[in-house]
Amino acid sequence: MSSPIRPSKGDCEIYQDYLSRKKEVERVLILGSTPEVRDLAAKLPKAKIYVADFSHQMLSGMVKFIRHADPTKEIWIKDDWLSLFLSERSFDVIIGDLVLQQIPPENEKVFLKKVNSLLKKDGIFISRFHFISERFQSKTIEEIVKKVEVKKRSYNEKVTLIRLWVWERFSDPESRKMDRCLAAREYTEFIKRTKMSDEAIKKVEKTLIAWENAPYTWSPPTEKQLVDGLSDYFTIVDRKVATDHEDAIYYPIFNLSPKIK
């Protein structure tokens, strides 16, 4: 999958930078099965690695994309992140990629409080997050597609960006809702109206239809909503964005330390 769905090389370099600042890492909790994150954690000497995912299928299915991590040395936990049965203040590092995308808005505070509680007092929480802006709110699908076509792109990059930008167009950050059904319907009308022949543009229609009834009906937060939410439970130690993929500015990677109350 193309960035920003998966971490780019530049994203991984930021993750690595944050990890290298933390000395004597004994216990690491990885949220999700992202291969790039598992590979980075595997390079930490003597660290005990826990990998928590909602799906055992994801834990095992992503193994084929791993380059450095040894699955036999990982401790797999199939569980909801909100109810992980792990000791409080026991992890030096908790790390994941786009973790809030898995959490409904009404559960974000519960999730962040849970992560805070699992970190040692000097622990760190590292993750890439996604926020949206108003850049597409008044745009037509034609305008969104044209924006993607301005630059020469690979098939996968084109499919990924159009899909994500169309979803953003049909997201309401105020209510934190995303209308996937309307996005699919409007895009189908666009294809019929314009008779587009480009294979990548046509592929987006199939993808949007396949996802229109997905249980993920929430919109990503705005930048302010994201920063305010994180700041309730963490001190922002650092925030960086990669420079090697299109929308990196909207996918910042945070290095966070827990606020102990």
UniProtKB/TrEMBL annotation:
Source organism superkingdom: Bacteria
- According to the entry, every stretch annotated as the Methyltransferase domain falls at 37-123
Q: Which SUPFAM superfamilies match?
A: S-adenosyl-L-methionine-dependent methyltransferases
Protein's name according to its UniProt entry: Methyltransferase domain-containing protein
Task: Return any one Pfam family short name.
Answer: Methyltransf_25
- Organism expressing this protein natively: Candidatus Sungbacteria bacterium GWC2_49_10
